[in-house]
Design goal:
Strands 1, 2, 3, 4, 5, 6, 7 and 9 form an eight-stranded mixed β-sheet that branches. Strands 10-16-21-25-26 form a five-stranded mixed β-sheet, with helices on both faces. It contains 18 helices and 26 strands. The chain is of the alpha/beta class. It starts with 6 loop residues before the first helix and ends with a helix.
Length: 501
């Protein structure tokens, strides 16, 4: 049975190939999708085939691809394999596309997730020619039931010259009521304060809107999201989680946060899942999340009652997590809210709600600068995503990583990071399996001492201490943030030359 009840939209039912034919070379295309959830399942593959055929004829056919965040092989992957992407914003994690970005074939603009939709509306990135957005259903009045992610879909539907909808029957029809889509945004100088004072407060409506006259095609699909398995927490991840939880207990005892903590934000990955799993076995209860992505561990917390509710912009579940959510979907309604990412990641809301932010990193340096995007300074891994939105505005932020990588060949604590995403001014606590460094209120010299003593692997600790001592002695009038400029990045160069820092 069709889920397209609106007569106008039902009259636009097309095949994926017919819909893809409406996308032209040079178009900027806004596609739904955030962390492998809610992305279009059929049109990107049809578009990739069309692009490949054009290339076989000798025609240049590439598009600008804009999304909410990462998508899946069925979007980024197939379009990258077809060499059909000219520019990519604001975040990517696909390995095929990553290789093309690092080879210089695709221009990648790595943008804070809270910034992208507003700045696109400001006109900073040019016109959005067409949007391809997955939804769960189109109601008789033309309102759209969102699917498993919201991301930038509201902005795409509002701002695109034309719209292609994918109505996915795999997405549960019971999704109706899980979303809170805010339609009070405006351009400066007409912006108004966001009236949200509790993480689960509704300030919008449960539907996406679209002008039916802009919809040029509707494609019905029945295909699952890309669901990513998570490895069981390893020894290092469990140690990181234990250090962080002990610190939270200390903050509660010191009176700096309530026993129910403050709203939690957790980045994606196994370390973040280990921290959440640690919370589930702790004394903390009645918690709430104000975050980007709901992972399996948050379902565990909701099921146990450790977490009373969670606001996000997307799911990021494993196959087991999806099955569990589908089976108990009615029990989660009212306890999970999905919002547009410009609301889930809104800097002022994050600051006002007092979020505790927990995000991963690639490396940190002895003064607390953090690199979360680039390997050896030049090759992008994924992107900054929402980590900057949360870190700079959080009540308390943590950056988490094992102290070594590549079987001990790389120290994740270095003299100077090879790329800066989060400056020392925005980094409060660094945690590795070795320990935790609380950097609040410390001078650079004190930060270095604490990071080296608490977070560095023993194989590299003495060398970092020696670096600081020699840097301090070398320039008596420049001891605020001592560096040996000819050695500051030598650890990275040594790894490139020899395979070990």
């Amino acid at each position: 049975m069709t889920r397209v009840s609106c007569p106008v939209l039902r009259s636009r039912l097309r095949s994926a190939d017919e819909a893809a034919a409406l996308i032209h070379a040079g178009d900027n295309v806004g596609m739904s999708g955030f962390t492998g959830a809610g992305y279009p399942k059929a049109v990107p593959a049809a578009l990739a085939r069309r692009i490949a055929e054009a290339h076989e004829r000798g025609d240049d056919f590439r598009i600008g691809l804009w999304t909410g965040a990462s998508t899946a092989p069925e979007v980024d992957g197939v379009l990258a394999e077809a060499h059909g992407i000219a520019t990519r914003l604001p975040y990517n994690s696909d390995p095929t596309l990553r290789a093309l970005i690092n080879a210089g074939e695709v221009d990648y603009v790595d943008t804070h997730l809270s910034h992208f939709a507003p700045q696109m509306w400001f006109g900073f990135y040019g016109r959005l020619n067409i949007a391809v957005v997955e939804v769960t259903a189109a109601l008789p009045d033309g309102l759209l039931v969102p699917s498993s992610s919201v991301g930038n879909n509201k902005t795409w539907l509002d701002q695109a010259d034309a719209v292609i909808l994918e109505v996915n029957h795999w997405q549960p029809r019971e999704f109706e009521g899980f979303h809170d889509i805010y339609y009070g945004t405006a351009l400066p100088p007409h912006r108004r304060p966001l009236n949200l004072v509790d993480p689960m407060e509704r300030i919008g409506e449960p539907y996406l809107r679209v002008d039916p006259q802009k919809v040029v095609a509707v494609v019905e699909t029945n295909a699952p999201d890309r669901n990513s398995p998570f490895d069981p927490p390893g020894e290092a991840s469990r140690a990181i989680a234990a250090h962080l939880l002990d610190f939270l207990r200390h903050e509660v005892t010191a009176g700096r946060m309530p026993p129910q903590l403050l709203p939690l934000q957790s980045g994606v990955g196994n370390v973040a899942n280990a921290v959440l799993a640690g919370l589930d076995g702790s004394e903390f209860t009645g918690l709430v999340a104000y975050t980007e992505v709901l992972q399996d561990a948050m379902l565990d917390l909701l099921d146990s009652g450790t977490l009373r509710a969670a606001s996000a912009t997307s799911f990021g579940l494993s196959d087991r997590g999806v099955a569990r959510f589908m089976e108990h979907i009615d029990a989660y309604k009212g306890r999970i809210l999905l919002r547009s990412e410009e609301i889930s990641n809104h800097p002022e809301l994050i600051r006002r709600l007092g979020v505790i932010a927990m995000n991963g990193m690639i490396e940190a340096d002895i003064y607390g600068n953090v690199n979360s995007t680039h390997v050896m300074g030049s090759a992008v891994m994924n992107g900054i995503g929402g980590s900057g939105d949360f870190a700079r505005n959080a009540y308390l932020n943590f950056f988490l990583s094992p102290s070594t990588a590549k079987n001990g060949s790389i120290s994740t604590i270095v003299p100077m990071v090879s790329h800066v995403d989060h400056t020392e001014h925005d980094v409060q606590v660094i945690v590795t399996e070795q320990g935790l460094a609380d950097l609040r209120g410390l001078s650079p010299a004190d930060r270095a001492e604490r990071i080296i003593a608490n977070c560095t692997h023993p194989d590299f600790r003495d060398r970092l201490s020696d670096y600081v001592a020699r840097a301090t002695a070398s320039r008596p009038t420049a001891r605020h943030t001592p560096h040996l400029l000819d050695e500051a990045l030598s650890w990275h160069q040594r790894y490139l030359d020899t395979g070990r820092m």
